[in-house]
């Protein structure tokens, strides 16, 4: 089932066109990887799916972005959109507060104040992010005392705490060591049972390991999109083949 349907999506930063006529269906309950060299439009596309680009001065968007059939650039509550479409960034960015308060922050913002309800949300979110066993005895300690890999899983738990439909991940392991990266990859694979995941990655092996679909971008254009196995074994476009075989990028 299609979660996001993009039709002829274009995006400009002032005079620079960062996305050119992107048309794609993003499947629900699957992991879609966006790959391509730096500056090709991957993160720009990702950020347009929850309107993060609204914060960029001079940004202009045309085309259709439908989430479950609803135009996200139409008459829509942006706070509700960002609740449904959560985002995890490249570098872990925990708030300078306790582990517990990091997770409870979103639910409190959306009006949940019951201590019992918050306790349940915190535990569930940390369990879903495969972090509960590591931090259950340090919930009152500063989140900044956690390791980099733990901080990134905490940020994933914080995103999950408001029960999103979609998880956007912008190179979530690029700042992490191989062991932490492996934990995040295992976690993402597990999360697709409950969420739709769209991940930007520079690591092509990562795309092969965890994604169901892969889209290859070049200079703001989506060059090729399909099943990950097919993209990496039998790419149709020479530019995609050159990139995944390491001839450029």
Keywords:
10 helices; Rossmann fold; 10 strands; alpha/beta; 4-stranded antiparallel beta sheet; 249 residues; 6-stranded mixed beta sheet
Structural class: alpha/beta
As residue ranges, the low-confidence spans are none
* Fraction in beta strands: 25-35%
The total of helices stands at 10
Q: CATH fold name, please?
A: Rossmann fold
Structurally, the number of domains stands at 1
Output mean pLDDT. 95
CATH architecture verdict: 3-Layer(aba) Sandwich
Q: Helicity level, as a percent range?
A: 25-40%
DSSP strand count = 10
Q: Whole-number radius of gyration?
A: 18 Å
Question: Helix and strand string, N-terminal first?
Answer: EEEHEEHEHHHHEHEHEEHH
How is this fold's topology laid out?
Layout: E1 2-13, E2 16-27, E3 31-35, H1 42-48, E4 59-67, E5 70-71, H2 78-84, E6 85-88, H3 99-109, H4 115-128, H5 132-135, H6 148-160, E7 166-170, H7 178-191, E8 196-200, H8 204-210, E9 213-218, E10 221-227, H9 228-233, H10 238-244
Helix pairs in contact: 3-4, 3-6, 4-6, 6-7
Question: How does this structure look, described?
Answer:
The protein has 249 residues and is α/β, with parallel strands linked by helices. 36% of the residues lie in helices and 27% in strands. The protein has helices spanning 42-48, 78-84, 99-109, 115-128, 132-135, 148-160, 178-191, 204-210, 228-233, 238-244, and strands spanning 2-13, 16-27, 31-35, 59-67, 70-71, 85-88, 166-170, 196-200, 213-218, 221-227. It has a six-stranded mixed β-sheet with strand order 6-7-8-3-9-10, with helices on both faces. β4 and β5 (70-71) form a beta hairpin. The longest helix is centred in the middle third of the chain and has 14 residues, at 115-128.
